[in-house]
Each structure stands twice: as structure tokens, then as C-alpha cells.
Inverse folding.
């Protein structure tokens, strides 16, 4: 049974600051209900520590207000190298912590003016955080994206679809006038069959993997400018999978690959990821959107 969806958003919390006068800000990475092993991230920075309150542990770090305050972020968010380095470290820290404990990951740039305001947030939302962590216990998030190559898929359909092949034969034995209309009919049928195959691949893949998951969701499709791929995205999905079921989940992905990848589809399964898609927080930058 799926847990109740939560609509909590960190941007609405009292105490979160985007412009603070102090020299240093408190940067929040994630929250756990068991004490995190800080030794796992000691090479990620000298200012990392955990704040315990209300039986919850927040993994945080101190950052410079000049760099992460409102003006600093506005300036630095235009620097792709800065974003790549800082966002990469953000994910690295969360992934290191979640290797030993379940976590609620927070979006890049979640800031507080002091430990006291962070503790106030843990107090206010403590019961909700604990419920989310109970849902996430002993589970992993996996992402699945499916792409298709239009030309390869059309070529495959042209060779395998009986109705299309029948029209092809008719074209070969028809007059020029009749063959023109038959070609138009074939193109329409090819486009219709193409869309059916795309929907079939996406729906079947999602439903089969959903059966092996505790929870699943479909995210918006990403354009080529974001994916940096020439082929089109068919499915962008995320699955919350019990760790005992991960083997079966991966085996099903392999089965889907064997069935679809020779027909013009490409299936990309990645994980485990911090469970942004299943804790009610804003999605992380570039991941199962």
C-alpha cells in the first residue's frame, strides 16, 4: 500500500533564508532519523557536522554568505562551472550519508541563518519527517528513462508490420496515380503504428516495474537540450524499490531491454539515487524528471 503523499516544500518553511546578514550560513543537505556516520564525508569539507533535535539528525555545513547569500547565488548561478562543482558536491555528500542510513534529501541551496532556526524547522515538521523516513526505510530510488530513434523505429516497423508490408506490395504493382495514394496511406499508417509502439513501450515498461516497486511516479519528459541526446524521450520515471526487490527490478529492466532495444528504443536505468521523488521535496537538478 502506498504511503500518503506529502506536499511539504522547503521554500515555505519559516526560518529558511535566501538573504542573511551573517557572514556564514547553515547549508542543509539531508535529514535522517539515525545518527549519520560523519566519517563518510570528512573528505568533503572541513565545516560539515550534524545537528540533532527531536530525534532527527540534520547533516549541514557552514558556507560563506558572500557566496550563498541572495546576491552571491544570483551571481554564481550564471557560472556553469560553479554550479557543476557545488551541485556535484551536494549530491556526493547526500549519497555518502545515505549509504548507511535512510535520508530525506534537500534541494540544492537550502539555507538557514543559524542552528536555532534549523532546529525550529525540525521541531515544526518533525512528525512529518519521521513519517517520510518510515516510508523510505530500507528502500532505494531508481530512475528509468526510455528514448527512441524515429528512423530506426520506422525502419523496424516497415520490415515487421504485416499491414505496412501488404501496402508496400500493392505499391509495387500499382499505377503511378494509385501508388501515390497508397504511399500516403502507408505513411499515415506508419505514423499511427509508430505512436502506438511508443505508447506501448512506455506503458508496459512502467507498469511492469511498478509491480515490483513500493511506489512509482512519472515525471515530465525532458527535451533534447537537457538530455543532450539526438533521440526523443518516451518515458521519464522513478521507482521506490524495497532493497530486497532490487535484484528482481534490475532483472525486469534487462528483460525490457532485450525486448525493445533492437527495435529502436534505448532504456536507461540508473540508481540508487537520493529519494527526492518520494519525500515531497523539490526535485534535484538534472535527475527521473
Amino acid at each position: 500500500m502506498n504511503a500518503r503523499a506529502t506536499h511539504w516544500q522547503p521554500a515555505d518553511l519559516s526560518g529558511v533564508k535566501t538573504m542573511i546578514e551573517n557572514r556564514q550560513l547553515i547549508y542543509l543537505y539531508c535529514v535522517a532519523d539515525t545518527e549519520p556516520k560523519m566519517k563518510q564525508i570528512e573528505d568533503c569539507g572541513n565545516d560539515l557536522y550534524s545537528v540533532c533535535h527531536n530525534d532527527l539528525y540534520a547533516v549541514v555545513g557552514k558556507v560563506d554568505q558572500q557566496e550563498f547569500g541572495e546576491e552571491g547565488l544570483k551571481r554564481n548561478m550564471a557560472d556553469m562551472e560553479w554550479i557543476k562543482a557545488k551541485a556535484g558536491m551536494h549530491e556526493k555528500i547526500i549519497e555518502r550519508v545515505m549509504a548507511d542510513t535512510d535520508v530525506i534529501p534537500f534541494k540544492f541551496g537550502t539555507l538557514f541563518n543559524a542552528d536555532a532556526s534549523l532546529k525550529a524547522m525540525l521541531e515544526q515538521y518533525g512528525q512529518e519527517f519521521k513519517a517520510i523516513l518510515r516510508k523510505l526505510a530500507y528502500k532505494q530510488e531508481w530512475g528509468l528513462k526510455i528514448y527512441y530513434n524515429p528512423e530506426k523505429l520506422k525502419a523496424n516497423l516497415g520490415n515487421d508490420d504485416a499491414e505496412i508490408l501488404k501496402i508496400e506490395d500493392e505499391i509495387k504493382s500499382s499505377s503511378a496515380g494509385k501508388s501515390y495514394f497508397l504511399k500516403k496511406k502507408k505513411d499515415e499508417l506508419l505514423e499511427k503504428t509508430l505512436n502506438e509502439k511508443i505508447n506501448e513501450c512506455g506503458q508496459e515498461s512502467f507498469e511492469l516495474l511498478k509491480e515490483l516497486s513500493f511506489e512509482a511516479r512519472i515525471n515530465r519528459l525532458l527535451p533534447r537540450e537537457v538530455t543532450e541526446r539526438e533521440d526523443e524521450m518516451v518515458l521519464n520515471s522513478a521507482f521506490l524499490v524495497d532493497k530486497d526487490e532490487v535484484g528482481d527490478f534490475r532483472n525486469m529492466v534487462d528483460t525490457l531491454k532485450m525486448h525493445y532495444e533492437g527495435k529502436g528504443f534505448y532504456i536507461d536505468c540508473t540508481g540508487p539515487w537520493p529519494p527526492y521523488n518520494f519525500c515531497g521535496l523539490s526535485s534535484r537538478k538534472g535527475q527521473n524528471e
